[in-house]
Amino acid sequence: MLRNYQKEGVDWLVRTEVGILADDMGLGKTVQAIKAIEQLFNDEEIGNCIIVAPLSLQKNWEIEISKWAPQLIYKRLTSSKSSDTDLMKLISSSNIILTNYENLREVSDFFENFNFDLMVADEVHKIRKTSSQVSQSIFKLKKKRFWGLTGTPVENNIEDLLTLLGHLTGQVMLPADKGRSKLYLLETIKPYMLRRMKSQVLSELPEVTEREYSVQLLDNQSKEYKEIWKNRQAIINDEGSYFSVLSRLRKICDGDKNYKQNSKVLAAGDLIENIKNNNEKVIIFSYYLDPLYALTDYLKKTDIEYVKFFDVDVQEREESIDRFKSDDSVTAFVASSRIASEGLTLTEANNVIFLNRWWNPSSNSQARDRVVRIGQERPVTIYNLFCSGTIEERVSEILNEKEGLYSQVLDGLVDDLSEISKELLDEREA
């Protein structure tokens, strides 16, 4: 049964020709879109629909369509090498075509000659770079209606959103500049976007406890960290980038995969062991891959069962999700935050460990909301690991500051990384 705010979202979509449903992560954007599609089909307002979603979310769409609108026939476009005849058969034999952004780009020439009644773009922020081939393939398709879905309408700059809406509506949206007020930006976007936050519509979500978890660099890490810090100016002069130094320092904190030990993996191992003993499950996120390799190597030597969601193909990802959900013996879901922070519902876990956090607070929020969402019935604990006495302490402060900015305007505006990097390296002592 739909919740009241979801019913309102369905009604809004049905009335909307061009718009973005930008509800907070975990509020059921997919379900709202499916029920709105169903209503339009039932009212004979549309006769066909194409849904474009990241490859990793294709199965989730299939599951949700089967659950919420079982009478609708969907077909997945799985090959970009399909002939024109095959594509026409696919369209004529289904209500909904389900495909991913890459495939759509490859077959966009065919679809140029076809009129879609409705296009739905999941994780629509992925086409914010309007000059990209993927974005252009979306824009040039003929469509009577367009709905975008995203929990992060602004990732880097609100101008990306204004430009995207301008392309979709055919209207000129004035760019944001220092003279534009937040009110102006909100009023410009308001007719084309519906956004609700968890705090506004859900009173029954579980309690969330967020813990900053400090660890100490091991001797081998500390030695390398100090060496990079000592030579930071030479590196900046050689590579012309403050950010390159900062990235090196952060990677040392995370630990190279060749280290026999690193502090974060040892700390995460202890946390995972405690979680297992409590008969609970945990998701471990890292933006960088090296600490994930190191952690899985560590877990292999223990009696802790885990699944991987990095360095695997799409089929293996789906198998990992299914096993984590269904197998009570599996404690840990070890994942890259680059590929697992969107679209997944993993409420079987009620613990999240961040080995590191990325610069964009919205990306971190997306990751944590795999757990903090509808269906979660237990208190949730988030562990943010950082190495004390390193650059990571100030990074955490900046992330918290940025989260405050995000809450002010559509989840906010991200600072320029080069400026952040310069600030950190100028002010911080090793």
How would you sum up this structure, described in words?
The protein folds into two domains: 4-199, Tandem AAA-ATPase domain (Rossmann fold), CATH 3.40.50; 208-427, P-loop containing nucleotide triphosphate hydrolases (Rossmann fold, 3-Layer(aba) Sandwich), CATH 3.40.50.300. The protein is built from 18 helices and 13 strands. The N and C termini lie far apart (55 Å). It has helices at residues 4-15, 29-42, 58-68, 84-92, 101-111, 133-140, 158-169, 182-189, 198-201, 219-230, 232-239, 242-254, 263-277, 290-300, 314-326, 361-368, 391-406, 417-427; strands at 18-21, 49-52, 74-76, 96-99, 115-122, 142-149, 193-194, 208-215, 282-286, 305-309, 330-336, 351-354, 380-387. The chain is 46% helix and 16% strand. Strands 3-4-2-5-6-1-7 form a seven-stranded parallel beta sheet, sandwiched between helices. A six-stranded parallel beta sheet has the order 8-13-12-9-11-10, sandwiched between helices. 39% of the residues are buried. β5, α6 and β6 form a beta-alpha-beta unit.
